[in-house]
Amino acid sequence: MKLPSSHIKAISIDAISLDKNALSLSISADIDFDRFADFAEPLVAALDCTVRERQWGADRHQWLLEFEGTQLCLNYEFYGNICWLSAEREADFDVLEYLATLLKSHL
């Protein structure tokens, strides 16, 4: 379920970085592993994505997202304190580039 834009929490991002070779968009932010959803849900809403699946383990969160028919993964690893969006196909890298433009307003 998507929240109306008036109900979207503000997100705070320190930096973003695109990596075409890894088909990824790195997101640097203050993220609490135990409260990952508090960071991820507003992020997903700001990107106008839909959450299809949520998985987590001892040190990692992985959410399957969809953006206009493109499947993406939102990943967070506790020990490396790294968060990134990834695409499966090289043809979908332009989606990551577009999403990066949306995140720039949150820097």
From TrEMBL:
InterPro entries: DUF3630. Pfam families: DUF3630. This is DUF3630 domain-containing protein.
